[in-house]
Prior knowledge:
With 154 residues, the protein is mainly β. It contains one helix and twelve strands. The protein has two domains: 2-89, Immunoglobulins (Immunoglobulin-like, Sandwich), CATH 2.60.40.10; 104-153, no CATH class. 8% of the residues lie in helices and 44% in strands. Strands 1, 3, 6, 7 and 8 form a five-stranded mixed beta sheet that branches. Strands 9-10-11-12 form a four-stranded antiparallel beta sheet, covered by helices on one side. The chain has a three-stranded antiparallel beta sheet with strand order 2-5-4, with no helix packed on it.
Amino acid sequence: xxxxxxxxxxxxxxxxxxxxxxxVTISKAGGAFASxxxxxxxxxxxxYQLALTAADTDTLGDLAFKFTDNGSAVFPATGDSxxxxxxxxxxxxxxxxxxxxxSSADLLKLMSAALLxxxxxxxxxxxxxxxxxxTNRIVATVDDDGQxxxxxxT
Length: 154
């Protein structure tokens, strides 16, 4: 699961069986396990929720959960015990996930310009502006058939 950096988030975990008191510690980006700032609360039976605070998600990288039941390690029934903390769900944490050198936010700006922004064609140059019509996002030189011969992305 992706978690936005420095944002509170509630995570729900289910366990196959428990015999005592459940406790949790977290490890940020491979660091030592320590108690989270948030609280672990039983929902019902073997279902628990962990209310993570901004302090729990302030470090980029893996956020690992270690649960103990009366001191013995236990694992969620789903096996889901590591999250990824990123700067933004559609931000720099996903840079390169779609196109090398472009963040998801960069690509969304370009797609918005191409699909929704103002387009002008003059002297074999097609220009696509951002949706607020304040910046050229795509400038392409085209031939007489409209085929692109060069493209500048900003």
